[in-house]
## 1
Amino acid sequence: MFFKPNFLLLDYAIRSLMRRFGKSFFIFFILSLLIFVLASVLMIADAIKLELNTTLKTLPQITLQRFIAGKQSDVPLERVEALLDIEGISAVTPRVWGYYYFKPAGVNFSIVGIDAYEEQYSATLSTLTQRFDIKLLEKENGMIIGEGVQKILSENYYTEFFNFITSEGKWQRVHIAGVFHSDLALESNDLIILPKKLAYAIFGMDKSKATDIIVKVANVKEIPTIVQKINERYPDMRAITQDDIRVSYQNIFDYKSGFFLALFSICAFAFFIIIYDKTSGLSSEEKKEIGILKAIGWSSDDILKEKFYESFTLSLSAFFVGITCSLFYVYALQASFLRNLFMGYSALKPSFALPFSVDVSMLILLFLLSVPIYIAATLIPAWRASTLDADEVMR
Amino acid sequence: MIVLHEVCKQFMQGDEEAHALKKVSLEIKKGECVVLKGSSGSGKSTLLSLIAGLMQPSSGTISVEGKEISKLPESFSAQLRREKIGFIFQKFHLIPYLSALENVIAPLIPENLPVRILEEKAKIAMEQCGIAHKAKMRVNRLSGGEQQRVAIARALVNNPSIILADEPTANLDETLSRELIASLEALKHSGVTLLIATHDPLFFELPFVDRIIEIKNGEMIL
């Protein structure tokens, strides 16, 4: 058998670690901390990517915006009918939406106007129209708000209604008819859903126009062709597909990942300082011990095995502690603080639960970056000392 | 049993080469007790280290029980040392954070035997040295004499046929030195080959010593 575990040697190695408790614990702590930070960052990134991808799937296949003189402009509603004539388009929905700046809290709410008789273009809206009576909203001037909006409004004493200030400077009182929570908090936390007529009134929009148009196609493979046809017919309209949004999200995500790259670099730097310290040599006490062990009959192989057990025990336990702590931190504590670096510090930042997503290849990468490197850093100086004459290291 | 043929050992001291041993030839029979005498730095300890396979000669050959230790791979010389040779050091060289029993077991750890067997072997060796009652104590809490006995027990734990002792009484008072000498005499009578490097005059008049060899500046004086 090539490798037969020697439990007495393992016991000796653990005692050896305990003897240098201060030093061993310091290395264990730093190594655990590094693994914890890196694993947490990677887990958060994975979880947010998963959430983003889930959100992306709910976005419209094609969003059409109109641009005049390089600025976004409202779209005439007559184009809705004309678009339905294009082969391959199965549904066209005009949207009325925009942002409402709420000065006391310094935040923007996303307002979406919906029509009870229209097909809803997102899963969130479909669910909402099933749960709430949209016709009643129209009758009673009501709105349904996201949890984040509710929190902000209630902090400002708006618990039953809210007075919007329209573009003409008039008050528009709207009752809070309900609060919704979506699994896709990224898209719903700052959302206010209200009847289209109210949205028109708040934004001061022309009722013959929409903010943009959502297009649904029968065959997703035809999206590029349909986009081309729309562009030919309406050169002033820009078509945004799911893929375009995915790229845009990815860019933001990659930009924010830069912070984590910096964090990663600091961790790696700290780790390699430890490694450098380890490889630069053993203490005279450790060298003397190696000399004694050789003198009483241990071979260099035995000494290296013992050092292997020492470093393996320390680094593997640090790895498991680091990973366990990061799992607890990310999924039980929802990565408080670190997730803000990704999600931003807005008062209305999405408050979604990070979906469980552990990438095995990430764990393997972390393992390879920590355990074998630490073992090697321990074995190299031990090997150097064990190949010296025992007589020399004992003096 | 132990045969050295024209053994030389050189060390580098800065840029200069120092000759620790110069063409030493020696033959020690099984069960013989040989004392190597000489002043500090004469080359006695180097000779013992070479016989134990702790270092390689610069030239010449060394055979222990028919095996040429100077040509053995390091792992085999370690095994030979573990099985055939017990080493008693001047400064005891115990591992301070281990108990007396654990220190005595230490040479056997690489053999990967069951703990029960190792403890039995260690207890026998410790009883032989009269230190069994201190088995559980950490060695850094033992007196100098007790530490020396633990060191001897460690040297005896594998029933070696050769004991190499390097200045064994250097850190002991006269009473403890005499106790140690009594232990060595008992070993000699049990058939163990003894090679003792010392400049302690106590050893020069002992009846059980078969030969006294003087080493001066790395050379044997006959």
Note: The domain at 1-65+161-222 of chain B is CATH 3.40.50.300 (Rossmann fold).
## 2
Amino acid sequence: MAVRAGAQPLVVLAGNPNAGKSTIFNALTGARQHVGNWPGKTVAVSSGTAHWNGTSVTLVDLPGTYSLSAHSLEETIARDFILEEHPDVAIVVADATNLERNLYLAVQILELGAPTTLALNMMDAAEADGTIIDVDLLQRLLGIPVTPTVGSKRRGLEDLLQQAIEQATPQPRTVDYGQELEQAIAALQPEIARLIDPRAPRYTALKLLEGDPRIEALCDQSPAAVALRDEARAAAQRIGTIYGDDVELLIADRRYGYVHGLAHQVVTNSRSAQQRSTTDRIDDLVAHRALGLPIFFGLMALVFVLTANASAPFVTWIDLVVNQVLAGWVTAVLTAVSAPAWLLSLLVDGVLAGVGGVMVFLPVLLVLYFCLAVLEDSGYMARAAFVMDRLMHLLGLHGKSFIPLVVGFGCNVPGILATRTLENRRDRLLTGLMVPLMSCAARLPIYVIFAAAFFPGNAALVVFGLYVLGIALAVLSGLLFRRTLFAGTADSLFVLELPPYRMPALHGLVTHMWRHSEEFVRKAATLILLASIVVWALLNLPVGVDDTADSLFGRAAGVVAPLFAPLGFGNWEATGSLATGLVAKEVVISSMSVIYLGDNEAPEPQPVDVAADLRAVVVGFGEAVLESVKVVISILPGVDLVSHDGAAGDTSLSIALQQNFSPASAAAFLVFVLIYAPCIATVGALKSEYGGRWAAFSIFYLTALAWIAGLVAYRLALWLG
Amino acid sequence: MPSLTDLSPSDHAIIQEVRGHGALRKRLLDMGVIPGAEIAVVRVAPLGDPVEYLVKGYHLSLRHSEAQQILVHTVMAGAGGDGTAPEKTGRWRRWLARRGHGR
């Protein structure tokens, strides 16, 4: 992604978390946005194009931060982006309901020396609170343009862009840090401009005096700069002894003093402090000592059921469109032109099956992202973290990490993508590595069929046990990774703002939902499609192969099979089925049907009736909508998380399984299925979120763990009889 | 000097000193937890940790280990009449609390 598109002005949005920055970004760019890597860095920034008065502007949404030090990745990104990309304008989005803390960031961005303008956002909420802000006075005191806005209602945004482009001044007022500090800054500035950074010497001087590790590291490049750093350290020490406090504290104190003064002058509040807000009243319930956890688990169950069930009718519909209607048309056309059978098979069983494999995730992701956006935008996510942090902290994780894990029970793919709501990369990665151990819905049919065939009396217990085993292994793996892979990295800070509740703007929710879903499809589509075609090719080569056992796939499975002998299922049939499970876990069962019972599909092309097909597609969509609405409504009285549709009815497969597995090897097989390498879509998600190396690590780790756990299960089962 | 963790819901205090170092201290200072600022305890999370505070006009939640770094001077003991029950110390909570103190 090129940050700058031609000569288009570059505008960045900076601001506190929860200040409504992304709402303004979404409102200004609409669908013309994408998330991409900042060139040369591994961090993602959202950028988009905004049109105003005939000109196009490139808009970049920087991560929300409270400050611009180097102690967190988000702050480093925001700061480096402004320092290195020289935006034409920085728009600081400030929450008008909490002016003081928001101005604290604004004055630091002014210190970076970029032309800046201030958006005074959420003016409606401030007014509702009885807060009146003298915008003209604030403008004069800060020395930069200030525009009142309401991002969620798109008010003031035109003015904001106009002010940003035309009037942002590069010479704003600055904070007076007091005689001693100002003298030290003045002494350092010329040398800093010469040796380190000519654009933001004042900011760099402040950071050197604070002892900011990243800025100090910049000084390592030359002996002169090292001398400068030592000079700054000496000055900091001297000032520290004069005031009896360290410079870090002095600077924060002066800066807060300055913004407190500003806020005091421009804000008039008519509301008495005694009045309790709506947020207080909601929190009395949602963060209640006894009710907080039940409410949280109830909401999680709701998200889980919505993601799994409300999307299910659409998944069926997509399956109808791709695998029946489209496949039928392709078959008809190819048969009409007498195309070779292998081409038909490639298109229908390889390409279309692959496309279908990607598309079926779309409804699931849309629903999930919608739910997550509601939780996030309303402000509940912070309460979820507040309520769950005690438990998750035992694993060294942040309270928010619980949500991706729960979502993972529905499907691992959205679970991994949901780790994005975590602020810290270590937490995202650690949680993402645990998600594949959450038994997704696709693994359930395998459990149910095996449990019914081998442990008829205790089937439910066996299935439940597998879920629990997955959770236990996830916890143990989390502890292991924390002690090994992430040893030495400190647990992330909790220090979390609980923002006031806000009604989420529908427009923002929809944008969020589309953008993230589309991104997954774009990033993972190629991988999934490719894998489907490779598996198809392996199953159908050498040319003219009839029996799966003789295909490249069957032979390869036969070669690998002995590895699984210690687990009790060292035959090519079991191994091959597991391998097809890499495409999607539920495929294991259909592969077993094909392998053990033979292919009983009728390959005859059906006559195609385009009109009837189209009718079926439209009617099917209507039915899916209705069905989905029914599901949503039926959630209210009771929750049934497990559906056993058509699982137990497969008696011929059960008999075949009983002939090929012993109860002990069946147990080992189930444990292996629970743990082994995630499906290709999950690998795609891991790769798109954390990079190829971590995806490879996850495959290797899980497969090794699955083998060991399978062996233990087999031995244990034999020993127990 | 008492730390924030010694306060009970609806107690008000003035921050005297912010200890600790590195990222935690910087973050606290950046969020307005600075000496001289007023801070009040709002509520305790269901499992006893973290705790929600009111500072600089907004709500901030801190873990026990983080709040311990903040030394305060109590100005007003809470009336306790806001429906928040006094701290209960069951075995489970005591165990969790011990785990929290360990780090």
Note: Chain B touches chain A through 41 residues (CB under 8 Å).
